[in-house]
């Protein structure tokens, strides 16, 4: 999907993890999802809707905790959708609704158009064992099983023959760079390695959807960065639809095609990393992104001048000898390409030719806007 555009439930996204060029369907859709802990959830929801109560007011008046309030969004097939928020914002509660570990008080969750809330127990087990895999912050690896048999556990439950389980587990461990550790036990592994075993266990069943609930948050910064790199590589290769929960904005920006920011059980903004950082929806989001460098978040497609406009009165020869960049090139890359600024940078899409140009003026304006 590099350079392609997608639209899901009104949101246009610029996927950065690879995938099909055409517009993808919505793999996951949440429609006005509420979760109220307390008596008479319907009454609480009605009061919030009609009286615009906040979380604290609902707790005081009804002794009810509003975990999720009117959550609606869609995730495209193959998209990495990051949900970010502080502790207590509702992000972990939200992701557990997708595979129905938690039942909503109101609203619907659709997976490939199928209402998860209407599934029978049998169909729900099928969904969890075949279509969706979940990875938690705590891996909960089996201490009495070696790495290979931890990874193969889901296949064993599914009834896959031993030889095939071994083959799939070996291949998956190679993906997460743990070849040679098959016969080690969890207590012999570092925290980062245990995290990779957990990810391999989720991937071994070849699910369509991954739900990752703060999988790297307990790790040291260097190990965390390495696992983020590996996740990005796997995302480009496997193209799994992913909901990634995090409290770290840097992580969300680095990994997500789009980001949803939550506060007090509500989503306050959904957008691409560039949208979130350069066009925050309110003061809460603006405070999150304050001080964050935007040089890697503003792209050539955003600041380029249309090709026809630039060439008017100049002719095609004006592009001779100009450096080129992809529409996804960030400001850091464009600054390196600009050199002395005498020639514009041609923005070109593979297979589509030139789309526009970035002049020194538009580059400087982009840098100023990023500041």
Topology, pairings included?
Blueprint (H helix, E strand, L loop, with lengths): L5 E3 L2 E3 L12 E12 L3 H11 L3 H8 L2 E12 L3 E5 L6 H8 L7 E6 L2 E2 L5 H11 E4 L11 H5 L1 H6 L3 H14 L15 H14 L4 E5 L7 H18 L2 E6 L2 H7 L2 E6 L2 E6 L1 H6 L4 H7 L10 H4 L1 E2 H5 L12 E2 L5 H8 L6 E5 L3 E6 L1 H11 L1
Parallel strand pairs: 5-10, 5-11, 8-9, 9-10, 14-15
Antiparallel strand pairs: 1-2, 3-4, 3-6, 6-7, 11-12, 13-16, 15-16
Would you identify the regions where 5 or more consecutive residues have pLDDT less than 50?
1-14, 18-23
Write out the strand line-up for the largest beta sheet, numbering strands in chain order: 8-9-10-5-11-12
pLDDT averaged residue by residue: 87
Question: Roughly how many Å is the radius of gyration?
Answer: 23 Å
Number of helices: 16
Shape: globular
Describe the biggest sheet?
6 strands, mixed
- Distance linking N and C termini: 29 Å
Helix percentage range: 25-40%
Structural class: alpha/beta
Number of strands: 16
Proportion in β-strands: 15-25%
Q: In words, what does this structure look like?
A:
- The model is unreliable at 1-14 and 18-23 (pLDDT under 50).
- The relative contact order is 0.12.
- It is built from 16 helices and 16 strands.
- The chain has helices at residues 41-51, 55-62, 91-98, 121-131, 147-151, 153-158, 162-175, 191-204, 221-238, 249-255, 273-278, 283-289, 300-303, 307-311, 331-338, 360-370, and strands at residues 6-8, 11-13, 26-37, 65-76, 80-84, 106-111, 114-115, 132-135, 209-213, 241-246, 258-263, 266-271, 305-306, 324-325, 345-349, 353-358.
- A hairpin with a 3-residue loop joins β15 and β16 (353-358).
- It has 371 residues and is α/β, with parallel strands linked by helices.
- A six-stranded mixed sheet has the order 8-9-10-5-11-12, with helices on both faces. A four-stranded antiparallel sheet has the order 4-3-6-7, with helices on both faces.
């Amino acid at each position: 999907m590099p350079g392609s555009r997608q639209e899901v439930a009104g949101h246009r996204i610029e996927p950065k993890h690879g995938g099909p060029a055409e517009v993808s369907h919505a793999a996951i859709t949440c429609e006005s999802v509420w979760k109220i802990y307390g008596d008479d959830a319907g009454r609480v929801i009605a009061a919030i809707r009609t009286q615009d109560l906040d979380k604290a007011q609902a707790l005081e008046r009804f002794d009810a905790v509003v975990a999720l309030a009117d959550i609606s969004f869609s995730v495209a097939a193959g998209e990495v959708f990051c949900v970010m928020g502080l502790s207590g914002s509702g992000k972990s509660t939200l992701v557990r609704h997708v595979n129905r570990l938690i039942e909503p008080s109101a609203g619907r969750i659709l997976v490939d158009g199928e209402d998860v809330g209407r599934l029978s127990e049998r169909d729900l087990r099928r969904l969890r064992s075949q279509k969706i895999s979940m990875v938690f912050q705590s891996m909960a690896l089996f201490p009495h099983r070696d790495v290979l048999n931890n990874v193969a556990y889901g296949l064993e439950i599914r009834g896959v023959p031993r030889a095939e389980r071994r083959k799939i587990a070996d291949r998956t461990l190679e993906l997460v760079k743990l070849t040679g550790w098959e016969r080690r036990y969890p207590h012999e592994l570092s925290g980062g390695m245990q995290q990779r075993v957990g990810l391999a266990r989720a991937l071994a069943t070849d699910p369509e959807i991954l739900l990752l609930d703060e999988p790297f948050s307990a790790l040291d910064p260097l190990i965390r960065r390495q696992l983020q790199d590996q996740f990005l590589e796997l995302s480009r290769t496997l193209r799994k639809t992913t909901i990634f929960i995090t409290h770290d904005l840097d992580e969300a920006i680095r990994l997500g095609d789009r980001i949803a920011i939550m506060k007090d059980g509500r989503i306050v903004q959904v957008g691409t990393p560039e949208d979130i950082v350069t066009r925050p929806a309110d003061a809460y989001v603006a405070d999150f992104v304050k001080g964050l460098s935007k040089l890697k978040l503003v792209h050539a497609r955003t600041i380029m001048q249309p090709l026809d406009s630039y060439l008017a009165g100049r002719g095609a020869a004006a592009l001779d000898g100009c450096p080129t960049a992809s529409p996804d090139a960030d400001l850091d890359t464009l600054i390196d390409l600009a050199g002395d600024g005498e020639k514009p940078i041609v923005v070109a899409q593979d297979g589509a030719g030139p789309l526009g140009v970035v002049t020194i003026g538009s580059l400087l304006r982009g840098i100023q806007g990023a500041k």
